[in-house]
Amino acid sequence: MKFITIQNSFFFLLIGSISILFFWLINDFLLILFWAMVLGIVFFPLYKLLLKITKKREALSSLLTISVILVLIFLPIYLISNSVAKEAVSIYQNLATENNVTEYINFDSYENHFNNVSNILHIDPIEAKDKIISIIKNTAVTVSNEALNLGKYTLNTVIGFFIMIYLLFFIFKDGVKISKRISDILPIGNEREEKIFRKFISIVRAIFKGTLIVALVQGFLGGILLYIVGIKAFLLLTILMIFLSIIPAVGPTIVLLPTGIIFLLTENFWQGLLLIIGAILISGVDNILRPILVGNATAMHDALITISIFGGLAVFGITGFIIGPVIAGIFITVWLIFEEKYKEDLDKCG
What we know:
- The protein contains 15 helices and no strands.
- With 350 residues, it is mainly alpha-helical.
- The model has no long low-confidence stretch (mean pLDDT 76).
């Protein structure tokens, strides 16, 4: 064996080992880096526009773009989260004991309706009432625990936020140079790397627009209906519907429809009909907006997108609604490149 072969073997072993060690080192910040990249990709056209306006002042353009992101995204998130937290704590305090639960729901005012529904469903009213109280108390405890956990992780969240903003500044300012440098180093081939990078960017933009914007629209429309019919915790339920709308085939219907049925059973007919009709109409918003926002940008079948979103949510949590489709899109792209490169050999095998 030639000495140069030994040298190369040790060098590649060193590259692999130090790369694994580096990613292990920054493991806790990979999600922050990912979201910085997502925001960088989505708002990069705005950065380029500001770059023209500021006469190619990169640092200034980057700061201005980040300012827009803070106002458009993070300020509303902070204000809404603060309101939701207060609402959740208020509900928990009201529902802390069984007496407060019964007073909060005011079973007595619905006693006749409750008994009628229980007779129709052939269930014991007392047992059903106890079950409802138990469910509400458990939910209140869960909300309280999550609020406490949120308080524990506030410092980490703040640190992570500032790290993301710091990374975002350099992604705007030096993103093109960094991506070109990575492309030059990777031993895949410039044409293949360009295809993979293009696919990554197109999927991130498409999923961000097509999923997040649709979820926000559906959630807010559902929240307006809940407010109109007089639901006290409409803001908390609005946030829940936004998260549910991220998941394909779920959406706000899972909140609005049961609530509408409950209103009908308690003879609040116009509220019940409004919620049921609203649930049907709002569920159709996805079919109208998604083609406009996404179009053919992902070049993936709807079934593959749905499966990859569910898989991403299961593995990565809420961030998975973007990570899942990105992995699926790159997976398809890599295999298409493979097919294109080795088409003749594959045809011979067939």
